[in-house]
Amino acid sequence: MITHRKRQHPIRVHLLTVLIGSLWLAGCASSNTASSQANPAAADAYTQLGAAYLERNNLPRALNALDRALDIAPRHAEALQALALVYQRQGENALANDYFQQAVDAEPDFTRARNNYAAFLYGQGQFDPACEQLETASQDAQYANRSQLFTNLGQCYLALEEFDDARARLQRAQSIDPRNARGYLMLAELEYSQGNYAQAWAPLQSYLQLAEPGQAALEMAVDIAHARGDYSVAADYQRQLGTN
Q1: Sign of CA dihedral 7, 119, 140, 48
Q2: What are the φ/ψ torsions at residue 144 (nearest 5 degrees)?
Q3: Strand, helix or coil at 4?
Q4: CB of 112 within 8 A of CB of 140?
Q5: What is the pLDDT of residue 243?
Q6: 8 has a pLDDT exceeding 50
């Protein structure tokens, strides 16, 4: 008889790394913060200039441009969160936290800022406040990356080992975007880590159909297939592991 031993796989992915491609730099839409009345066009222009420098990792010039924007409009939410990102890259975590907080205070509906603030908090190991920011952000039904946001929220609850909340948020991510590969993988890993092999199989199969599988996903597939008694399927995944 083949005995099956559950293998634990890490279910955390560095949230900051995942989010880096979705930072506010993409698009760089100007903010509608009400207090940007002194010269909003100039504040927006300096903010976009700062964004361009930040994208090229020219942090001193980004800092200078964003300071100019905030001289004109001290509560310009885009400039505040951009400055937070600059300080985050420089390792000035206290300043980054302060400017992220100012950004979401200035514009409470600024979902991208909350998402980026949550990434920062998660990277600092502050999982509870990160989840709080993501919960607030998740209420924005018009947010373009809402499925990713719910996936991030599920991951945040995983870090807190609040598995029911994590499962609910990951399932919500899939209902919003059925092609969210990362969400399927995280849901499969959650169920697998809890020994729920039957529940892990379907999301794992969805992930394998949508993405190029890595070693951890294939090993999980081998284990679950063995647990299901699907030895030929397990052997197929084992062969893929050998060529991966």
Answers
A1: negative
A2: -65, -35
A3: coil
A4: no
A5: 67
A6: no
> Tokens 């794992």, residue?
204
Distance from C-alpha of 148 to C-alpha of 176, rounded to nearest angstrom? 9
CA nearest to 183, candidates 161, 212, 214, 152: 152
**Quick one: DSSP state of residue 14?**
-
24-76 pLDDT, tens per residue?
A: 333 333 344 433 345 789 999 999 999 999 999 999 999 999 999 999 999 99
pLDDT at 18: 42
Task: Tell me the backbone φ, ψ of residue 77, rounded to 5 degrees.
Answer: -65, -40
How far apart CA 46 and CA 195 sit, in angstroms, is 53
Q: What angle do CA 232, 236, 241 make, to 5 degrees?
A: 140
Q: Are 57 and 48 in contact (CB under 8 A)?
A: no
Would you tell me how many other CB atoms lie within 10 Å of the CB of residue 180?
Answer: 23
Q: Rounded distance, CA 133 to CA 123, Å? A: 14
Instruction: Name the residue type at position 69.
Output: A
| 234 phi and psi angles, rounded to 5 deg | -60, -40
Find the DSSP H helices in the chain: 15-19, 40-55, 59-72, 77-89, 93-106, 111-123, 127-137, 146-159, 163-176, 181-193, 197-210, 215-228, 231-243
